[in-house]
Amino acid sequence: MNWERFKSLYYTNPKLGLSLDISRMPFPDDFLTTMQPKLQQAFADMAALEGGAIANPDENRMVGHYWLRNADLAPTPELKQAITSTLDAIKDFTAKVHKGELTAPGGVKFKEVLVIGIGGSALGPQLVNHALGRLKGGRDKLRVSFFDNTDPDGMDYVLKELGSRLKQTLVIVISKSGGTVETRNGMLEAAAAFKAAGLDYPKHFVAVTGAGSKLEQVAISEGWLARFPMWDWVGGRTSELCAVGLLPAALQGIKIDQMLAGAAAMDEVTRKKSLRDNPAALLALMWYWATDGKGTKDMVVLPYKDRLLLFSRYLQQLVMESLGKELDLQGNVVNQGIAVYGNKGSTDQHAYVQQLREGVNNFFVTFIEVLKDRNDASLEVEPGITTGDYLQGFFLGTRDALSEKNRHSITITVNEVSPRSLGQLIGLYERAVGLYASLVGINAYHQPGVEAGKKAATGVIALRLKIADALKAAGGREFTAETLAALLNQPEKTELVFKLLEHLAANPAGHVKKTVQKPWHESTYAWQE
Ligand SMILES: O=P(O)(O)OC[C@H]1O[C@](O)(CO)[C@@H](O)[C@@H]1O
């Protein structure tokens, strides 16, 4: 590649220990200049947001995740106090758990944490747990596992892993709204498991939720061990650096002050109004150029580091829930967004990189390079060559192989994976998403699209109950999906009735017996006790 272009476009910040290479994005010479007016407007929007403007107009909310790592920026003394006192409470709670001053009943020391949450209430904690656990090779103070779905078998798997250590388990139920059904279900399943083991579950349970939420009410009425706040001015997908992410991380033994310091340092840099000094602005402009400001190309995130495996999944929510919007701020239909996927290199080279090099050219890659290989000395797998040399070799080789075929890429280089550098990466992408949203004129801080699926699911559950009632009342009479839908007066929902019957028949709790017939849609279903 072109060294002169690289020299002129390479952003490097030794203080942060982070560099950004956009030289493999072949934008025209005048692109950065022509984007200046839009970019300056994005900076102005961002300054207003950080100053406490209602940056999420649809929900009439401020957007304050940047205050979490510099409480002095909070627009009122009350908000500043809320941030600092919560941080103190997290540290105090954690210290007591670590010292064994706060224990499970019977003085049993907590050794395990089970986090129950979904979306923004799980992805950040999962990323941090995976990236920063056992960082120095030792054991974590507490081991963290997750319920992040309403999949019964998934929960059984985690509970089996915990086994008899349930009595040493602290459960953190995280839900900003406090009404998310998957999380409620996880909480009920966990509580049932504790009860079945003869354990007094409220003495193990902690809530992280918004004031007045259903979850908070349950936690209060059942006398849970502790509660930590979640505020309406922090979005789920930007909540890693409030109690949502900090509490599990601190309990695990991760240095949360360093995560906060990393994010704060990145915030300072990404507030700079001069483009060449602002890696988030450079990133946002590259997304704009690569995708025509319309999401025409996908963002493939490829960290060459096992510890960063979950970063692409974390970014998937941050980017897609923020940018994937039907309407712009003026109410025009724009169907914006950028699709994000990826796992890690060089593993993915043996999976989908074939298509990246030779197939449809509908993506740009963001490589994440980590300079430090490991803590200890490395084995030579060939004379003078380590496994880490190979990891870098595959990264550089793949990058070149893609460039040769006009497949564009950005590279972010960090010195190491650490609480500080992860805080920086989170801060970098939060800012880039916010700036990009301004460039394309959308609200990055709401998620109206997820409601439709939730409402439809409620309808499905209601129909499931009606089906069970009707079959039971029919006392063993057999129905096809069609005849049952007709009986329920909902012939337009026959497909849904079929899907529900199939699930009921597959599970003992469904009390439905299926008799297979030919053709398949003449199969019958009847109630069975
Ligand atoms: O923290 P809560 O309120 O349970 O929400 C979990 C997730 O669900 C969503 O609202 C989407 O349904 C996300 O935005 C959020 O991170």
Automatic annotation (TrEMBL):
Recorded metabolic or biological pathway in which this protein acts: Carbohydrate biosynthesis; gluconeogenesis; Carbohydrate degradation; glycolysis; D-glyceraldehyde 3-phosphate and glycerone phosphate from D-glucose: step 2/4
Main location: cytoplasm
One GO MF term attached to the UniProt entry: glucose-6-phosphate isomerase activity
UniProt enzyme class: isomerase
GO CC annotations on file: cytosol
Active site: 321, 350, 454
Catalytic activity: alpha-D-glucose 6-phosphate = beta-D-fructose 6-phosphate
Function description: Catalyzes the reversible isomerization of glucose-6-phosphate to fructose-6-phosphate.
NCBIfam families: PRK14096.1 (NF010696)
Protein name as annotated: Glucose-6-phosphate isomerase
UniProt gene name: pgi
